[in-house]
Design goal:
This protein is mainly α and about 260 residues long.
Length: about 260
């Protein structure tokens, strides 16, 4: 796997999670109190930094064969979850992920909740909402960066890609001060689901002792094959004539799917 492919794979996967975290933080700050929301962001990033600092060196010490088997299995589970939801959305059985609707729901919830402070935090609801959003989405970013980076023995490059994704989304969010509703998140989740599934199958099989024909070049066949299979399932679901899922979601449910 080349450095460019590693960077692109991690960047695309992490940018989706960063968009979801941004939506939560914007709702907490806009609907309640920006200072408390930003304190929650800092606290969440701090917890993530400690977790990454502990897990990073540990992963690099694991033998490559065992690492690929574990990482491949985790990526396969993770990727299949994303791909399943993406197929259901594209097939009309699950509501499309709508950042604008999620933002509005979170904003309404934030405004309806009574204000309460604790210590230096003026608004505890804003703090906890931002903290949980950054921590949950950030853990997924860290998982993707660490697993891809450790498997390729290039955690710094994977971390750079993850950081670039977060930076791009943060700058865009600050510039427009609104959720990035125009980002083609549903399509991106489909692509990322395909990629994670393919890499999970590839590395898991290698970790189990299998030899792929053409080595890394096998990914050029594996990725399109999974994509075509997923698109075929979408076509079958659409032909079934099932009614589309009702739009609308909550900040605690759809934001993490």
């Amino acid at each position: 796997m080349s450095s460019g492919a590693l960077f692109i794979a991690v960047f695309l996967a992490c940018i989706v999670e960063a968009v979801e975290a941004l939506t939560i933080v914007l709702a907490a700050g806009t609907g309640r109190d920006w200072r408390s929301a930003l304190i929650g962001v800092v606290a969440g990033v701090g917890v993530l930094a400690v977790a990454v600092a502990a897990l990073g060196p540990a992963l690099t010490a694991v033998p490559l064969t065992g690492l690929r088997l574990v990482v491949g299995g985790l990526l396969l589970i993770f990727g299949l979850q994303w791909l399943r939801k993406a197929i259901l959305r594209a097939g009309g059985l699950k509501a499309l992920h709508d950042e604008a609707a999620i933002f509005q729901t979170a904003l309404d919830d934030a405004r309806a909740t009574p204000s309460r402070g604790r210590g230096v935090v003026a608004d505890w609801y804003s703090f906890t909402l931002s903290f949980k959003g950054v921590l949950l989405e950030g853990l997924e970013v860290a998982f993707i960066a660490l697993t891809f980076g450790a498997n390729q023995h290039d955690i710094p490059l994977a971390a750079l890609a993850a950081g670039a994704a977060v930076l791009v989304v943060t700058v865009a969010g600050i510039a427009i001060r609104a959720p990035l509703a125009r980002v083609p998140e549903n399509s991106m989740k489909f692509v990322v689901g395909v990629m994670l599934t393919a890499f999970g199958m590839f590395w898991g099989a290698e970790g189990a002792g299998a030899q792929w024909p053409g080595a890394d070049a096998a990914l050029l066949v594996l990725i399109p094959s999974i994509a075509l299979f997923a698109l075929g399932l979408v076509a079958i679901l659409r032909r079934a004539g099932r009614p589309p899922a009702t739009a609308g979601s909550s900040i605690t449910g759809e934001a993490h799917s």
